[in-house]
Design goal:
This is Peptidase C51 domain-containing protein. There is one protein chain. The chain is α+β, with helices and mostly antiparallel strands. It has seven helices and 13 strands. It has a six-stranded antiparallel sheet with strand order 8-13-9-10-11-12. Helix 2 packs antiparallel against helix 3.
Length: 293
């Protein structure tokens, strides 16, 4: 595509539409579009999922994003103005027209965020988007895990297990969970992760290869998926958990499951071993991140 000149949000901004389309974050910090939404810099969400479609993030969140990305204060009015500009991006993406969404994003006129450090972008993602709990790579992360040290993660997990013990041993506060499913693994990850949709809407993200595992942050939501990339029901043998850490032996997760009459499935830490001959959800490499809600 030829360069598109913005005359709206930042008059005079020029960048290429193809740098904003369908891929990983551009190296020069340009905003970009893919099937997970529209993003700024290293993965700050500009849109949010609403039902089956997309809408701009709220003005206060957009203002916080601009402040972190560009290193100077932005007001609520700036957030309102950006939300108005992003409406056409959200509409195009909701209609499945990613090319048009990319062009619309170019016309918004957001300049590159190349001056923002990766740490600043990650902080903005964690501070400004607790309603859609994603890290700087766009992965779902359970609430309150962002930026924790190893010791702090251990303390948080201990606290969560104790908290679950006060309500019968399982987390079951996620919205829209049927009473018969309150002990299931999905109830745990949805209870602890703001904005995570019902499992029927989950789509498979990155496979947990050894290289991907090295990049996972504590609190990342992981799950096993059917061959079609969707999360099936309990009868299909799928499982969801919260990644905590990796060792030479395997990965530690926080999980729960319906143990059908005993307490073995209550919230607990579990080590899934590489090379477990039972395969399936017992193998770390059977898991993936969640692509979108």
């Amino acid at each position: 595509m030829s360069p598109q000149r913005s005359t709206e949000f930042w008059p005079g901004t020029v960048h290429r539409a193809d740098a904003c389309f369908d891929g990983a974050p551009p190296k020069d910090g340009l905003p970009y579009v893919n099937d997970q939404g529209a993003f700024l810099g290293g993965g700050l969400p500009l849109l949010r999922r609403v039902g089956e479609g997309w809408q701009p993030q709220t003005p206060d969140r957009l203002a916080a994003t601009l402040t972190q990305a560009y290193g100077r204060p932005y007001t609520l009015d700036d957030g309102v103005r950006l939300a108005q500009r992003l409406a056409s991006v959200a509409q195009a993406l909701s209609e499945g027209k990613r090319a048009l969404a990319a062009i619309a994003l170019v016309r918004v006129g957001l300049p590159p965020a190349e001056g923002a450090t990766k740490a600043a972008l990650a902080k903005a993602a964690n501070d400004a988007y607790q309603g859609e709990a994603r890290d700087d790579q766009g992965r779902w992360v359970a609430d309150g895990f962002a930026g924790l040290s190893t010791k702090q993660v251990d303390a948080k997990v201990t606290g969560l297990i104790a908290e679950a013990g006060k309500v019968g041993g399982w987390f079951h506060s996620a919205p829209h969970i049927d009473a018969q499913n309150i002990h299931e693994c999905v109830s745990l990850v949805r209870s602890l992760t703001s904005g995570l949709a019902k499992s029927g809407n989950w789509r498979e993200g990155e496979k947990l290869t050894p290289d991907v595992i090295k990049t996972l942050k504590p609190g990342t939501v992981i799950a096993t998926f059917d061959p079609n990339g969707r999360y099936g029901n309990r009868a299909a043998g799928n499982h969801a958990a919260i990644f905590l850490s990796a060792t030479d032996e395997g990965i530690w997760v926080l999980e729960q499951y319906n143990s059908r009459g005993n307490n073995s499935g209550q919230v607990h830490k579990k080590l899934y071993l590489y090379g477990d001959k039972r395969g399936g959800s017992k193998l770390p490499t059977s898991y993936s991140t969640i692509k979108k809600d």
